[in-house]
Amino acid sequence: MELPRRTRGDELLKPGELLGVRRRVRQIAGRHDLTSVIACAFDHRTRMLPFIYADLHMVPAGVRAIGSALADAGFEKTRIVLQQWNRNFRPSQMRLDGRLPDLFMVSSMQLHTAACMELIRDACRIDPSYRPLIIVGGPKAIYEPWDAFGLDPHDPWGADVAVTGEEFVLLSLIEALLTARARNESLRATFLRARDSGVLDGIPGLVYARSQDGIVAEELIDTGIQRLVGDLDELPHPVLGYRLLETPSRATNLASQALPAEQVRRYSSIGSLVLTFGCKFACPYCPIPAYNQRQFRVKSGERIADEFSTLHRTYGIRRFFGADDNFFNDKSRTLEIVETLSRIKIDGAPIRKRIRWGTEATVHDTLQLKDHLSVVRKAGIRSLWIGVEDMTATLVKKGQSVDKTTESFRLLHKHGICPMPMMMHHDEQPLISRGPIPYGLLNQVRRLRKARAVSMQVLMLVPATGSKLYGETYTSGMAYESVGGRKVEEHMLGGNYVVASHHRKPWRKQINILVAYAYFYNPLRFLWALVRPTSKLYLADAMWQFLGMWGLAQTVRRTLGWAWRLRSGKIRRNTALPASRIPMRGVNGAAADHALPGTPPCENVELEPSVASAGRSIRVTLPVLTGARG
Ligand code: B12
Ligand code: SF4
Predict the structure, then answer these.
(1) What is the mean pLDDT of the chain?
(2) What is the whole-number distance in angstroms between the Cα of residue 290 and the centre of ligand 1?
(3) Lowest-pLDDT choice from 343-347, 392-396, 556-560, 583-587
(4) Which atom of ligand 1 is nearest to the CA of 61?
């Protein structure tokens, strides 16, 4: 159930298109004194391994990018509020520049849906005549935009529009609204007019609601799959977003000033940066290749060098994380980036002396670059999160094997780069196996540790929105609806809870994850790393052991009760996909690109193939509204 592909050759924006909309919005911005608040939804129940530190100490690139885009377009009166740092924030009480903002935006991952909905609900408590225009975006909206709209007439709430795309879509929407805006008109009033006149239908990447009473959504209009920016150098500079952050506090409203630049590093000790997007592999449980329309998008080495240097100089940030899906995906592009970085100096010193950074890659691509790992290290890379998933390639094949994984880890270690494996536990994998091939989870964890793995990530396979396997996980009855009377909620979909399995004893899977972590992170290894260091990476090793033990305590606290339910409670299974309950359609009679099978059809509409699916020459009619996409 992947996002449909746009017509071949029409996946990307034309070169300069993003630069163009940035320039045009900047030209009209001066006539509109807009204030905006962007909230990052965060559900604190998700705080556990393997992300327990990064989740709070790294400003997410998504909200920061949206903030940068607004500031770059001339809307400096913008504030970014992270629920990670401001858990009591209430949109109904926010004031910026002494007034209610014109725009309230929420960014959310699927995992943080409950927090996202609560933010929107609270914003809807503002009197409708003063209410800001509410826009929702981010990975949740990209795959499940309908969840941003309520359908209970007794409990009316909902965003005005969901953006299922990136900066270009938002800026195009803002441009359309500001062009249509009458003097002294609220942005939301302009939006409602623009929506009803059909102006928004020409902007792919939006989902908005229509209703008779203006309160409860009766149908959702999906303007289709966005076009992606191909040249990431066209994106606004990330330095702009960091100066818009709300200072961490327990307050329900906003402070008069944003977090001062000199304090940014104190709270966001890790800076996240977009370097590349996309991946050439096609793992069936992963939505990334389809989201990127099978394209690999990159920034140039020069631009990346500038971003690292500017962020280091402006905010003092010394550790970075590349928000890549597979940084080594394209050998020549990777070499262009790392060679440029290895040559630059920041304040007179080579980059590796000033900053260190990590990112994600695969075993296969690491081995492709084995003769260049010294340049990779010189570029400042100190850690690589490697998607091993299963060393024996039983779960998925992406060029890894026991020997190749071991070899790549040893090579990385030899070059002073910490190998950080990401593993996936699944129904067929036992905890321990016998024989020369390490099928068992513990066997693999042991091998990886021997091969010098510094951290460990073990997640259970769960249904991932936008992946090929998503639909089947539900229709085959693998995904649970509830266990022992406790409903499976979105905050449990991150891979730490066993929520989809055909295993006879799923509680074992839950315990296996804890055992694997306890084997890897424990006081003995921590002491050993400090007392008997075996390599120059011993400090990193000790630090990860410490973090891992803390994270494990949280993981046990949060998931042990679930293991007990799995053992003793009745498991109810889902048989249908969690599709929109609100009817959906595309524009001009096309099918809705973002709808899942099971979405109710809009009445009296004959659907044509949508823009995105047109290239696949299928005709979609109402009774099979979304099933044809499968
Ligand atoms: C870095 C990263 C992390 C870091 C995040 C740390 C941090 N604080 O930033 C860590 C390692 C902690 C992490 C953890 C997890 N992650 Co993660 N992660 C990523 C990754 C690789 C990059 C994220 C990023 O910075 N992207 C760059 C920014 C610019 O993109 P973006 O966030 O999508 O934002 C753009 C648009 O979405 C849009 N947008 C975003 N917000 C808004 C808001 C508005 C109003 C608008 C208009 C637009 C908009 O515009 C932005 C600019 O282009 C992505 C994959 C990817 N390449 O994006 C996965 C991803 C976000 N992670 C994902 C998942 C599932 C997880 C985990 C649950 C673990 C797991 N099972 O993989 C955990 C959750 C932990 C937690 N408690 O939150 C999924 C989310 C799927 C979903 N439907 O929600 C993604 C998309 C990967 C995937 N499978 O496709 N992750
Ligand atoms: S290698 Fe990683 S990013 Fe690429 S498709 Fe597989 S899981 Fe997704």
Answers:
(1) 94
(2) 15
(3) 392-396
(4) 25
In the chain, the amino acid numbered 198 is G
Which atom of ligand 1 sits closest to the CA of residue 493?
Answer: 68
**CA 362 to ligand 2 centroid distance, Å:** 8
Task: Tell the residue nearest (CA) to atom 1 of ligand 2.
Answer: 281
To the question of pTM greater than 0.90 for the whole model, the response is yes
DSSP 348: T
38, 91 Cβ separation under 8 angstroms: no
Strand partners, 58: 270
Lowest-pLDDT range, 138-142, 151-155, 265-269, 270-274? Answer: 151-155
Report CA(140)–ligand 1 centroid distance (Å): 9
CA separation for the pair 132, 103 (Å, rounded): 5
Give the 3-state DSSP-derived string for 473-496, with helices as H, strands as E and coil as C: HHHCCCEEEEECCEECCHHHCCCC
Residue-wise pLDDT tens digits, 486-506:
999 999 999 999 999 999 999
Ligand 2 and 279: CB distance under 6 A: yes
* Contact predicate 484/413, CB 8 Å: no
CA distance 361 to 364: 9
CA distance 518 to 515: 5
Report helix, strand or coil for 79.
Answer: strand
480: its two tokens: 């649970």
Ligand nearest to the CA of 165: 1
Ligand 2 near 291 CB (within 6 A) = no
Indicate if ligand 2 lies below 6 Å from the C-beta of 116.
no
